[in-house]
Amino acid sequence: MDPLFALNIDPYSAYIDDEIKIAKIADEHGIDIISMQDHPYNGNFLDTWTFLTYLASITEKVRIMTNVANTPLRNPVMLAKQASTLDRITKGRVELGIGAGAFWDGIRSFGLEKKDPKEAFEAFKDAINIMRIFFSITRDNELASYEGKYYSLYSAYLGPKPYHKIRIWIGGYGKKMLALIGMYGDGWTISLPYLPPQELPSKKKIIEEYALKKGRDPKNIRTNYNFGGIIFSDEKERERIKRADVIMGTIDEWVKIMLEFHKLGVDTFTFWAAGPRKVEQSILFAKEVVPRFKESLGYK
After folding, report:
1. For 22-78, how does the pLDDT look when each residue is reduced to its tens digit (9 = 90+)?
2. Among 278, 217, 272, CA closest to 33
3. The pLDDT of residue 261
4. How many helices (H) and strands (E) does the chain have?
5. 263 Cβ partners below 8 Å, 6+ apart?
6. pLDDT digits (tens, 9 = 90+) for 278-291
7. Distance between CA 296 and CA 300 in Å, rounded?
8. Which of 232, 236, 246, 271 has a CA between 20 and 30 Å from the CA of residue 135?
9. Rounded to whole angstroms, how far apart are CA atoms 204 and 47?
10. Largest distance between two CA atoms of the chain
11. Buried b or exposed e, range 128-155, using 16+ CB within 10 angstroms
12. Which is the CATH superfamily of the domain at 4-297?
């Protein structure tokens, strides 16, 4: 599949103006997606869905994506309705990333009962099934039912019908989650701090195995890699900035690193600008790194 490129936007309430600038940079320079993490229990964060909706309203082409939505705190049928609504309004610019909930102490702080890993997984399966039902309706106000252990639909009238087939990107690392992605996901999303690139092939093999068991073509399941980093504008920055937790390099070095990721099966690249110059970093990624990467692969 043709590669896709995304810019991360963190929903910090203290930096709204810069975050809006990054969204506009993405829209103006041909970036495919703007994505945003979803941790409602972080008091420094704006609400992800509300902010993404606003960013969709001030852009024209770039798609918006939760990366990933916190399903324990977002009722799945309402999340599907919100995504489908925005997809209709934007004429097909919504991508939906979802996760089972990684930080249960934070989730519990908002009044929800803490689930053990087995319970969280089963609830997440219900959530995926309901979203797939919603995104598959053929008309507005279509009747649907689903009997789940944690989430159900009882003769529910669903709608609006999404403008296009909304992709469901699933975040996860363990075998059960990878199997779920293979059976039901349109994309897999992972982050560099939690999965080093050398482990990608073995994990992707599990996804492919379960996709085939389900009669699906694994080639249709995308792989999104979230990677934080700093793009050096000159060699002086390399001498000045010392960090071990993110990728750092010149524009050409970034292109080489991404080509290595691509060889390992990554087809969607989400850049999380690190450091204080996030707007400038986003410009370098959009205007310099992405065009050179495409050129290296033979794309215009």
Report:
1. 999 999 999 999 999 999 999 999 999 999 999 999 999 999 999 999 999 999 999
2. 272
3. 96
4. 11, 11
5. none
6. 999 999 999 999 99
7. 10
8. 271
9. 32
10. 64
11. bbbbbbbbebeeeeeebebeeeebebee
12. Luciferase-like domain (3.20.20.30)
